[in-house]
Amino acid sequence: MILTITPNPSLDRTYELPVLQRGEVLRATADRMDPGGKGVNVSRAVAAAGHRTLAVMPLGGAPGALVAELLGAEGIEVAPVRVTGDTRSNITLVEPDGTLTKINAPGPELSAGDAVSLLETVRTHSAGADWIACCGSLPRGLAPEWYAELVARAHEAGARIALDTSGPSLLAALRERPDVVKPNAEELAQAVGRPLATVGDALKATRELRDAGARTVLASLGADGQLLAGAEGTYHATARVAVVRSNVGAGDASLAGFLTAGGVGPDALASAVAHGAAAVQLPGSVMPTPADLVPSAVTVTTDIPLDRALTEPAS
């Protein structure tokens, strides 16, 4: 069982457009509504893969009730912490070439009591969890050290923690030695305080995060694959992708694939890349099922292409 924590969940609306024109009335060719937030997406991907998951999150107002309803329809158990403000609603506009325009609302401000309630809800439900995945940005009202406290409490209870966040929240949590951290290239560059132009630059940055406390680093490099750096070794993996339809939630699907495959070593990395590659070929934030995966399209190697320029350099 994988328990997820999403401190700032959302109701996500995705619209596919023939063209994006500023100042015009636009007519969508397709639309969908999904429960959103990084931890929510991890739970959705875990459930789509046929594994048990429980999603902990603060929920408020009609949007929060709809998030819980949509997750229930996907067979996902929700452990909500009721808050005063409305759960945020986010909008994604998708153009035919796959370009995404996202509008993310700030979400409600949580109280000190809400912060404690979230920690206690995780403690109450974490017995028997194989992994606890803490994902996404922190909402207003939660200090950057909140994730660090969560990691410390989880370790005291004997649980393994995967952390997917960025900025001060990530840096503060490193001192508590999370079992896995999952930055993308931009978040990795931000964490080490310098641009990343090559796969070799990214590899060096993952090692610095390990030196700072992360036990394993799973770094997403977009079209350039993923890096895994841990006690078991260092690996690079890529996958063939026919058409990118939407990358919303692809990193979350990837983390789910990594954790459901054990969260350690090259086999887990291959699962992560297969899940991420499948997700980008699906609309909106649809999570892949086992039928969507193409393991044969994934290549894993210890021969890291250090001089390979990143398709999208991170600054």
From TrEMBL:
Record carries keyword Kinase: yes
Family matches, as SUPFAM superfamilies: Ribokinase-like
UniProt entry tagged with the keyword GTP-binding: no
Pfam families, sorted: PfkB (PF00294)
Domain of life of the native organism: Bacteria
Limits of the Carbohydrate kinase PfkB domain: 20-290
Key words of the record: ATP-binding, Kinase, Nucleotide-binding, Transferase
InterPro entries: 1-PFruKinase, PfkB_dom, Ribokinase-like, Tagatose/fructose_Pkinase
Family: Belongs to the carbohydrate kinase PfkB family.
Identification of the protein by name: 1-phosphofructokinase
Organism per entry: Streptomyces enissocaesilis
Gene: pfkB
